[in-house]
Structure formats: structure tokens, C-alpha cells
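Q: Is it fine to ask for two folds in a single conversation?
A: Yes, each is treated on its own. Send the first.
Q: Here.
A: Result:
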Amino acid sequence: MRKINALDRQRTVYTQGATGKRQLIPFQPNLLAQAAQQRMSPAAWAYIAGGAGLEQTMSANASAFDRWRIVPRMLRDVEQRDTGTAFFGHTIPAPLFLAPIGVLEMVHPEADLAVARAARQLGLPYVFSNQASVPMEHCAAAMENTPHLFQLYWSRSNDLVVHFLQRAEAAGCSGLVVTLDTTMLGWRTRDLDMASLPFLQGKGIAQYSSDPVFRKLMAEPDTSPKPSTRLSWDAIRTLIQANRNFPGSFWKNLRSGAGLQAVRTFVRLYSRPNITWADLPFLREHTRLPIILKGILHPDDARKALDYGVDGIYVSNHGGRQVDGSIAAIEALPAIVETVRERVPVLIDSGFRGGADVFKALALGATAVGIGRPYCYALAINGQAGVEELLSNWMADFEITMGLSGCKNLAEVRAAAVVKI
């Protein structure tokens, strides 16, 4: 694990700049996004950068931070600063983790594996996506002893759900992040305009195609209605991609139709809108892992989650990708923290752009903050090294913000003054 000292990081940037060397990963969020867009295909950019509908929730996530202001305190000894914190049985160097983002093969060839290696280098937790491009076991091996968690989308097959849980336990995951807000795919206008859904090319389904239970489900008859299609070069390219992305020999997959069958089986199983609170005990019966519910935005849902004995609350609106016009995550945080009253950790993501945003969330009671799109952008620019650079920058940014606000550790951050304007 690489130890980051904020002032050393800052000095390195300026010293290298004096010799004509600039950092590859831009520090300003808008420049970071612009640089990433230049490295990504239009379809990849639409999928990663886009949101639901008019993207009002994405805008709300950003603007909501501007309504909370830090009140720095002066003449406090902040010479020695400690950003370390507890995280589901581990001690991590900063209150940050890498949020789950799927289909990273659209962004960089090494995909999730590059992110896992970067997270290990900085000692930060990584939540493996249910829609990963690399099976969880490979990423867990790359993480070594660095904490990692598994995100679960509850599919229509409980047998598959149970086996995912078993695999997550065997892979040494520290928790199960159950994503509640994606029982159906959001109305993502950028993807719809391009008529592009990566799963139909077999992308982002590595957790499924590597799973023996899923392989058995592929053999079951598919009675779901099939959309009418016509033979075209695009259809042929989609067929080729699906078979290339399925494990094993391309020609064997092509002859057997395995790639296409995997896509059809995934589409049939993925969406399950009928999950309710009554289903939660099923998870507890089948896993010893801490259960964290992701997508909580209402305090009553947080209260009910505690009634069901969950181990963590994850405040999120999926980065604005699911419900257009939703409440911003940071706006939802204070009421949920008040409801939880430190009984379980409260995680949050959606719209974070740097260390000051992280400070505000912790001052409002969050336990740790998930980084999302920014690490994808860094991955697109420079792979694992890009993600490492971005994480180093965020850790340094947060530490400097903490010190300049008069706080030397996270306990003081959580007691710090933030005001709403």
C-alpha cells in the first residue's frame, strides 16, 4: 500500500512542473471528463457519462454540494493529520472507496482488473460490479488483502443469486452491496439515441458467463418473446462480439451459439422488479457477509432497513442514471444519518467531484464516500496508472481540505461545521 502525504503530493506536482512535466490526469473535473471523452468511443462515453432522461438528477447531484458550505476554524494544530478510518472490519487510509461501475471493458482493455490493482496500491476498498468485465475471483486475487465487496443485482434466478453470494464469500469479500434502484434499466437517453446496450454484445456479463449455475440456466428453454430482427452487418458484428466475449474458443462459441445464448439468458434473468422487503431475509439465510443496501434516499427506507437487520446503508441515486428528477444524494444524507444514529455505517456516492465534497459528506455524517465516474475517466486516459494517480489526488485533496478547515482527523471532520445556504 502506497502512503500518500498531501503536501508531498502537491510538492511533487509543482516540482515536476518546474522541469516541464505535467501530470497526465487532469485535476479539474471538467478537464478530466474532456480528456477521457477523447479516449473513449461514442458508445462508451454515452454509457459511462450519461444519465437518465433530461439528466436533471446528474445536475442536482452537482449543484446540491454548492448549497453546503464549510466553515473553517483557525489556529488549530493540524501539523499531524490522520485520514484513516474503519471500514467493515478493516482500517483504510482514507474515507474513500471505489463504487461499482459496470462494462469497464468499454473504457480500457484491462477493465476491472486495472481498477482492482490501483485500489490495492492505495489501500482503498473496491466494490466489484455485478456487471463486471472481469470475474470477481480475478479481481479479488489482484486486491490481495485490500478490502473488497461485491455488488449484487437480484436476478430472477434465486439459484444464481445464492451462487453469487457463495462466490463472493469464497473470494474474501468484506460485504454484499445489494443495489435496490436498478430492478429495471433507467431511461438513459444517450444510450437510447445510439440504440446501444453493451450487454447485447456480451459485454459486462463476466460474473454471469463465468458462473456454472448461469451456464446451466443457458440450457433452459427460452419462452420469452423475441424482438424481430433483420440480417445486417451490425447484427453480424453483434453476433461476433457476443461470441468473442464469452469464455473459450471463439469458433467453438460461434458453432454452439453460446455467446448469443448467454446474452439471451442474461436479458431474461437480469430485471426483477418484484423484489420487496420480504425478500431480504432470503439473503441473510444464505450469506454470512455484512449486507449493505444501496440506493436508499428516504429516511423511512433507512429505518425499515435497520428493522430488517442490515449492516450498512448506502445513500445513492446511481449517479443520476436511474430516476430523472430524483433528490440529490447529498440532500438525502442528513435525514438518513439522523435516522440511523450511528447504528450502522452510512456510505454515499453520486456526484462527488473532489476532496471538499468528501469533507462535506463526512461532516454531515457519512462513513465513507464512493468515487464513481472520475476513476473511469482516469482509467480511460491511462489505465491502472491513471486510476492510481486520480486516487492519490483525491486523497491529497481531502487531506488538505481537512487541515485547512482546522481538522486533524475524521472525528474532528464529523464534528465540523457545515452550513446550508
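Q: Second one now.
A: Result:
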Amino acid sequence: MRKGYITVFLTLSLTLILSLVFVVIEGARISAIRMKFECVSDIGMNSVLAEYHREMLEQYDLLFVDTSYGGGSADIGNTEAHLKNYIRMNLRPGSNKAGIGMGRTKDFLAMDAGNVQIGKYSIASDNQGAVLKRQVTDYMSDYPVGAILEKLNLGVSEMESYGLETKDVAGERHGYEARIDEIGLPTREVEEGVYEEVPLDNPADIANATRSSGVLNLVLEDPSQVSAVKVSLNDYISRRTRKQGTGLCSEAVSVSGKPDELVFQAYLFEKYGHYGKELDKSLLKYQIEYILAGKDTDWQNLEQVAKRLLRWREAANVIYILTDSAKIAEAEAMALALTAVCMCPELAEPVKYTILFAWAYVESLQDVKTLLAGGRVPIYKTAADWKTGINSIKNVRGSLAQDDGGRGLNYEEYLRIMIFLQNQDTRTFRAMDIMEMDIRRTAGNGRFCLDGCFDAYEADMSVVSGFGYRYEMTRHYGFY
């Protein structure tokens, strides 16, 4: 009878013990499912970021994931599929992409990927390009921009103090020309009853006649060497309808800081080429000039920048020459000689000013020629900086000399001032045009689009278990 009591006792005890063991095992299963879900979610989301676009990193030191993955259409659904596959493959290492077992049949967790949805993602062009510029600011955090920005601020301040961007030199010149027309030229009888005006032979007219020739044709030794590349601008991000993400990632901003416009401008001159500093990889050779002018050919972009340089230099040189008593005296002597010949001394004063304006124009062409040759030109000149003589207005092309010396600012520093003065959004999207142009030249990226690229995303994920469990999780990952 004693053995019988022991058997019943053991049976009752084992029932309790086994129940406890099974509870512990099931608890271990639940904990393991949760822990593995955490691990494979982190692995999966990091794996998505590991598919960053190699050319964006190589050429621009920026990290973005291209949702087209080298295919034809950029879509966040492609990334969702990649993420789900990474989760599934890490949950069941012995399975294929469809989740079908390949060998092992016993699985303590029996987990598989459920729904995967990316609800938030920051596209490069979101917030008028702020997502891209946030990364630029992060990349440039150790770049010594202080000295460059200090010089830029000095140049901008000097230009603004003289009003070079707004001064209407052409209007002033036309005013003096109108005064000459109002006074009129005397006439002489060439034959009975036939009269003609006595010619003034103002050399300023010779100089002004070259204004329609185009700046590059006047200042370059060999204009045929200018790049002839032409692009179709409607193919690029500044002209097309853009895809939208969910905007700038607040977590990224809290870690790396807000986008900085001045830093972005410094970045442009580190990564982009311009006349005299062209990049082999580039489609358009004068990239900074494109950002400024937005034309579809290298020639037009360089011509527009050269015209603006000429306008600035002409404004500065007019301001200076009207304070130089020696040059004013030279112009006055020439004007008196001209008006004496045509017997109209009342024209001397307006003629003098047209000569001074023409002289400042030729000096400005010399300045542009110097800048494009790699030389320097100060924003405001002294007598020692003046290069041309008064007779240069009679032979404009022949009077311009090749010069790569001098003091003041060089061509790139004038470009920096132009970039600083440019509209922020225009500058940003044209810079992104250049990125698309150059990346599309690389293998497998013929249809690359920046508005198909993201740098941060938030995913809602779930897993299911063959033992009846389902868990959901939200994770946020990005390059910051």
C-alpha cells in the first residue's frame, strides 16, 4: 500500500511540475519571439540603409537610398518589399524569398514576416531641398568655411555700399546720348539746296557698337574653345513635377542640426565645377554658371554670367572714372576737339560723358577678360588698377590684353557673391539638376531621380508565429 501512495503523489506532483515547465517554455518562446523580432527589425532596417546609392556617396559624399534600385520607377513600395524580405530571411535563414522552408522543418518559434509599411520617409527634395541640405550641413561640419564666409561677407558689403547690383549705368549713358540728340548737329550745304549733318565722329559710338557682339566674343582669345554641351532641362528635377515624402526628419535635425544656407553655398564650390575649373565627370562643364543662369547650354550660361560681371564692373568703373580728374580732363580734351571740328561747342559736355562711359565700358571688358584668364580685379579701383587708355574706345578688341595678375577678387570669388545673392530655392533645385545630370552618366543610373531618394524612414512592421502569436513594432532609422 505504501508504494501505491507514492505513485499517486508523484502523479499529482508531476502534473504540477510539467504545467510549470510548459508555462516556462511558453514564456521563453514569447520572450524569444519578441527578442528575435527586435533583432531582425533592426537588422532589416539597417540592411535597407546599407543599399545607399554608391554614386551619390562617391561624387557628393551624401547618403541616400534610391527607391528605384536602378530600375525604371522610383517607389517607396520597392523599399517596403526589400525590408520585408530582409526581415523574412533573418527570421527563417533556411527559407527562400517566398518564405518556403528549405531543409529544416522544426522551428521553436515558427516566425514569419507579416505586414511591412513605410509611413514616413524624407525625400531629398522635400521642404524645398532642406532634406538634402541637412545632409550637406552634416557633411561640412568640419569644413573650414569661416575664412571663406568672412571674405564673402566683405565682398557683398562692398558691392552693396556702391550699389553695383542696382546702378543703372545704361540709363545714365542713354541720358547723355539723348542730350546730344536734343542739341543736334549743325548742317552744311553739300550742293545747292542739299544739306547734311556735320559728323561728330564720336569714338564712344565705336565702342558702344560692340555691345551687340556678345561678351565672350569680345573677351576670350578663342571663343570656339567654350564648351558646346546642350541639355534638355525638362528632364530634371527643377522643371518636372516632383514626388513628395513626409518632409524633413525632426530626429535628424536634432542630431545633426538645421540646414545652413551659407554652408550649402560653400559645398557647391567644393563639389561643382565652373569655367577654369571644369570637372571631368560633369555633363555641363560650367556647373556654377548653370546654377546662376539656368540655361540649357554651357555657352549661354557662361555668357549670362559674363554679362552680369560686365554690368557690375561697368557700374564700379563708372563710379570711379567720374572721380578721376585726370581721366575727366582727357575726355574733356577729346570732346572739345571733336565738337570744334563740327563747330558745335555746346555738345562738348554730353560728349565728354559719353566718352567717359565708353572708356569705363572698355575697362570693364578688360576686367572680365582678366577674371576669365584667372586674374584678379578689385571691386573698386584706384588709378593704379586702371588698365586701358582713352584711345582704347576707338579699337575695343585690339586694346584688350591678356592678363592673369592683379589684386582683388578672382573669378570664383565673384561667383560666390552671385551665388550668395541668388534666390535660395532656385539655387537649390538647379544644384540638384546638376547632381541628376552627372549621376545619370554612370552605369545603371540612366533614369536616376533625386525625388526618388530618401535618407530617413519610419516603418511599421509585424511578425506572426505558427504558435498563434502576432507582434507589431514601429522603428525609425536614417543617415544621421
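Q: Anything structural to flag on that second result?
A: Two points. Residues 129-439 form one domain. Residues 313 and 364 are 5 Å apart (CA to CA).
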